[in-house]
Design goal:
The complex is a heterodimer of chains A (183) and B (310).
Chain A: E1 2-10, H1 12-29, E2 36-41, H2 45-60, E3 66-69, E4 100-108, H3 112-122, E5 129-137, E6 149-153, E7 160-165, H4 167-170, E8 174-181
Parallel strand pairs in A: 2-3, 2-4, 4-5, 5-6
Antiparallel strand pairs in A: 1-8, 7-8
Chain B: H1 14-31, E1 45-50, H2 56-67, E2 71-75, H3 88-97, E3 102-107, H4 112-118, E4 123-129, H5 135-149, E5 156-160, H6 167-177, E6 182-186, E7 202-204, H7 207-211, E8 216-219, H8 235-242, E9 257-259, H9 272-275, H10 282-300, H11 305-309
Parallel strand pairs in B: 1-2, 1-3, 3-4, 5-6, 5-8, 6-7, 8-9
Helix pairs in contact in B: 1-5, 1-10, 2-10, 5-6, 5-10
Classes of the chains: A alpha/beta (183), B alpha/beta (310).
Chain lengths: 183, 310
């Protein structure tokens, strides 16, 4: 099984503009960021959350806390996988009680990751609200979950893979659609 | 790591051990949370079967399972049908057909977990078999060392005491050797097993000489239950020669770690000052034991393992 690149959906400029817009929307929706925290979902949600937080600080001159959430232990498919996925650390080093927490992830697809993230987050405390920011919404939801802040809506087929690249992990910024091939 | 059983560290690769230790890091975070529970092993069942006494190993397996939402049952051997003469094989079969996924077993006879493993589809974890291995103790020792030192590679480790009867020592030697550690063992000649050279271990009879420049000292418990008479003259004499006291630490590196698998015989193999001292990680070892066992349960109780193994 391999992948072939089909289409570039976002270059580095588009990706960063989308993050800037999401930062503005988070501020607007929450009427400021006094009670707002960002929590990135491992792995690429984490650098995205950190970048949105930096933009919020530039705009509002307020630091927003940023946490890291690993959802592996909350997955609903652990008993069907051949071998266990790697567990990474969760690091939410602030009290989330009564905070407006914005979950940040790269791609929203079936919604199962977000379902797991909601459970994982609620095990850490009782936020006032949980909102969801994603860079790409590619459709095909299997659960009643919807994003509050979206970088770009991208209609896809299930044979396609949406790959997000971020400087911090991949050495470059961008989003491409790839197709799974048999070869 | 992708295997049905954990019978010893002898069979594990360095990569397997690293994968367990890496997984234990996020598990340790869970223990420190307000809500110490994740739903990961919901619907899985495990049983602990201990034919020998235990406080920390059995309890930590049980709580590790509970933190991960597995159903955990302890079979109290002393009040079970084992006392009516039921064979081990029948006991294991009985447990298996109740639907358990994993069995943790401790037995005074070496090789018992291996025998059980051949006679069941359940995953089997060796929690100590005779004088053979105690792999989860060694894993938590490796975790404790790696956490404090940042690495295991090339460290000098002295294991002190009754090496002959110690499954903890054997598992530690297997594990540490895989990371290129220099392993030294020290104790009375009568408590040294044959064949140490083959395990690439240096043996010493003087505590001072053995501790020179070491990064880690692992003190073993004098196992009164396994002492045939005559291996050493008296506990007093043993304490005179081998009890770890504050002055012994001078010979070791300044940031030397002191480990003890517990339960401690204070005043015999370790002085209270050292046990409570700044170099001691003895209490933290217990916490790490829960984290390491959580990691193992997670890695071993994953879905389709049984079909893969058989």
């Amino acid at each position: 099984m391999g992948f072939i690149d089909k289409k570039i959906i976002m270059d580095d400029l588009a990706l960063n503009r989308a993050l800037t817009r999401i930062a503005h929307e988070i501020i607007e929706r929450n009427k400021g960021v006094n009670n707002v925290a960002l929590v990135g979902i491992q792995r690429r949600g984490v650098p995205l959350a950190e970048r949105v937080a930096r933009r919020i600080t530039e705009i509002e001159n307020v630091e927003v806390p940023v946490g890291i959430l690993d959802i592996t232990l909350y997955r609903d498919d652990l008993t069907t996988l051949a071998s266990q996925p790697v567990v990474h650390r969760t690091a939410v080093n602030f009290n989330i009680n009564d905070m407006n927490v914005v979950l940040v992830d790269d791609v929203l697809y079936t919604g199962r990751t977000i379902r797991a993230a909601l459970d994982a987050l609620i095990d850490l405390g009782r936020p006032k609200s949980i909102q969801l920011a994603v860079l790409i919404d590619r459709g095909h939801r299997e659960l009643p979950i919807k994003a509050d802040f979206i970088g770009k809506n991208v209609p896809t087929s299930r044979q396609e893979v949406v790959s997000v690249f971020v400087q911090e992990v991949d050495g470059k910024d961008g989003v491409v659609i790839q197709e799974i091939t048999d070869s | 790591m992708n295997q049905k059983d954990l019978l010893g560290l002898k069979e594990l690769s360095r990569e397997d051990i690293e994968s367990i230790l890496d997984t234990a890091v996020p598990m340790k975070d869970i223990i420190k949370r307000d809500i110490k529970k994740v739903p990961t092993l919901r619907g899985k069942a495990m049983v602990t079967v201990f034919y020998e006494n235990s406080t920390r190993t059995r309890t930590s397996f049980e709580i590790a399972g509970k933190y991960l939402s597995a159903d955990t049952v302890n079979l109290a051997v002393s009040t079970s049908s084992v006392q009516k003469g039921e064979s081990l094989k029948d006991t294991v079969k009985t447990i298996e057909v109740m639907g358990f996924d994993l069995m943790v077993i401790r037995h005074s006879m070496s090789g018992t977990p291996h025998y059980v493993s051949r006679n069941t589809n359940m995953s089997v974890i060796n929690a100590g078999d005779g004088t053979n291995e105690h792999p989860t103790q060694a894993l938590l020792d490796l975790y404790s060392i790696r956490e404090k030192k940042g690495t295991l590679d090339g460290l000098k480790v002295a294991i002190v005491g009754d090496i002959l009867h110690s499954r903890v020592a054997r598992s530690n030697i297997y594990g540490l050797s895989k990371f290129g550690c220099e392993v030294r063992v020290v104790g009375p000649a009568t408590l040294m097993p044959p064949g140490l050279e083959k395990m690439n271990v240096k043996s010493y009879h003087s505590l001072e000489a053995a501790l020179k420049g070491v990064d880690v000292i692992n003190i073993l418990r004098i196992q009164k239950e396994r002492q045939q008479s005559g291996l050493f003259p008296s506990l007093d004499e043993y304490a005179n020669l081998y009890m770890l006291r504050p002055e012994h630490l001078q010979a070791a590196k300044e940031d030397v770690l002191v480990l003890h698998p517990g339960p401690m015989n204070r005043g015999i193999e370790i002085s209270s000052q050292v046990a409570e001292g700044l170099n001691s990680v003895i209490n933290e070892q217990v916490t790490n034991g829960v984290a390491v066992r959580m990691a193992l349960l997670f890695l071993m109780m994953g879905g389709s393992k049984n079909e893969v193994a058989s």
